[in-house]
Design brief:
Layout (H helix, E strand, L loop, with lengths): L2 E3 L5 E3 L1 E2 L1 H11 L3 H10 L5 E2 L5 H6 L2 E3 H8 L3 H9 L6 E3 L2 E5 H11 L1
Parallel strand pairs: 3-4
Antiparallel strand pairs: 1-2, 5-7, 6-7
Helix pairs in contact: 1-2, 4-5
Protein name: Helix-turn-helix domain-containing protein
Organism: Phaeodactylibacter xiamenensis
GO molecular function: DNA binding
Length: 112
């Protein structure tokens, strides 16, 4: 994990898991999304809850559009086309589009 040194002499990770955000938010009495936004706005973290490691992507049961595009080696635009034409089912969670890994595997098995 890459880290960044700040003048206040503690080390912060560039990314943080969704679980870490949730736990910290509970301890502070905040909503997780609000805490994550605050940390990102102040440049304390670059991302949270997103996986870039290919091995981890292979094990995730639920993926974002970006994660699905990385997993399949295609652009986000291609994923959105598959969503639009109904080839790939999706679920909306607030403003995020989520895809089930099982649906991606099913699509891949149909095309091979």
């Amino acid at each position: 994990m890459k880290t960044e040194q700040h003048s206040n002499s503690f080390t912060l990770p560039h990314s943080i898991s969704q679980e870490q955000i949730t736990n910290a938010a509970k301890a502070l009495g905040l909503q997780p999304a609000l805490l994550a936004t605050m940390l990102k706005d102040y440049g304390l973290i670059r991302s949270y809850g997103r996986t870039t490691n290919q091995a981890q992507l292979n094990q995730k049961p639920i993926l974002t559009v970006l994660e699905a595009s990385r997993l399949l080696g295609v652009s986000k635009r291609t994923i959105y086309r598959l969503l639009k034409d109904g080839s790939l089912p999706y679920h909306k969670n607030e403003d995020r589009t989520l895809l089930l890994r099982a649906d991606i595997d099913h699509l891949l098995n149909q095309t091979t």
